Amino acid sequence: GARTNRANLTRYRLSKCWVVFIGECMKQFKIFICLSMCILYLSCEQPSINDETDKVLLGQKVAISAGHGLSYNSDTNTWNYQRSELNGILEDIYTQEFCMNYLAPKLKEEGAEVIFLRNEDNNYYGLSGYEAWKEDAITYISSKGYEEFPGDYNDVTIRPAYAKKMEADIFISIHLDKINEITRGTHIAVFGEMNFPTNIRSDYNYQSSSLLLATKMQENLFNSAIAYDPTWNNLGLFEGNLGELREFYNDWYSGLGDIPSVMVFLGCIDNVDDIKMLIEDDFKRALAEAIVLSLK
C-alpha cells in the first residue's frame, strides 16, 4: 500500500518533470525557429521603398528643350536674350527654370533619363559671363566637343539634332506665348506644314504619335490648371512648320524613326491673369506633373 503510493508519487513527479522539460524544449525550439527565420529574412535582399520597377518611365530618354536663352550675336559681339521681359517674366529664364526645377525632377522620379538641351549646371559662369544655365542651346551643345556641332545649325535646329544624337525617345519643348493680352491659357503645337499658329485640322495626317501625345498632354495640363484657377482656358492644339519639330517629322515621313515631339505653351506671358498663376510654385509643380503623367 504505502510502497505503491510512493511509487505512484515518484512516477507522477517524473512525468511532471518530463512535461516541464519537453515544454521548455518546445519553447526553446520555437525561439530557435523564430530566430532562424529572422536571420533568413534579413539575409535576403529586400526590395527598396523606391523600387526601380515601379518607375514607369524607367529606360526612357526624354529630351527637354527650354525655349530660347542667352545668345551670342557675332555682328555686334554681344550677348542678348532672345525674348524681351514682359510683366516681370523673361521667357528665356522662365522656361529653363521650369525645366530644371520642376519638370526634370518629376521625370527623374519616374525613372526617366533627362536630356537637357540647355545647360542645367548652375554652378559656373559660361562664355557669356553670365551663369551657364541662362545661355542658349547652341552655346551649350557646341561646348560638348562633338565635331558635327555647331556646323550649319542654329539655336533652333541644333536642338532636335542633339536630341537624336543622344537617342531621345521623346522630345518636349517648353515655351510661353504672347497673343493679344486678352487670350489666356495653355496650348500645344505639333508639326504641320501650315503657318503657325493654325488650329489642328480634323484631317491632320502628319506624325500621329506626336498628335496622340499632344492630345493627352493638353488634357492633363488643362485639368491641372483649372484645379488652381477655374477660369483657365484650354486653347487646344495647333500645328505649324516649327523648326524644333520639323526634323522629327521628316524622319517619320522618311521611315527613319518616330520620336513623339511636342511644343508646350504653358501660358500667355502677355496676360496678367496667366502671369499670376505661372509664378506660383504649386502651379508650376502641377503643370510639370501633368506633363509627366502624359508620358505614362
Model description:
- This protein has 296 residues and is of the alpha/beta class.
- It has 8 helices and 9 strands.
- Strands 4-1-5-9-6-8-7 form a 7-stranded mixed sheet, sandwiched between helices. A two-stranded antiparallel sheet has the order 2-3.
- The longest helix has 42 residues, at 2-43.
- It is globular and about 115 Å long.
- The model has no long low-confidence stretch (mean pLDDT 89).
Helix and strand layout, with pairings?
Blueprint: H1 2-43, E1 61-66, E2 70-73, E3 78-81, H2 91-109, E4 113-116, H3 137-142, H4 158-165, E5 170-177, E6 186-191, E7 198-199, H5 208-228, E8 234-240, H6 243-253, E9 261-268, H7 272-278, H8 281-293
Parallel strand pairs: 1-4, 1-5, 5-9, 6-8
Antiparallel strand pairs: 2-3, 6-9, 7-8
Helix pairs in contact: 2-8, 4-6, 5-8
Kindly estimate the percentage of residues that lie in beta strands according to DSSP: 15-25%
Rg, Å, rounded: 32 Å
Q: What coarse outline follows from CA principal-axis ratios? A: globular
Order of helices and strands: HEEEHEHHEEEHEHEHH
Multimerization status = single chain
Distance between the ends: 89 Å
What about the largest sheet? 7 strands, mixed
The secondary-structure class comes to alpha/beta
Total E-strand runs: 9
Q: Provide the helix percentage.
A: 40-55%
User: What is the spatial order of strands in the main beta sheet?
Assistant: 4-1-5-9-6-8-7
- Helix tally equals 8
**Low-pLDDT sequence parts:** none
The averaged pLDDT comes out at 89
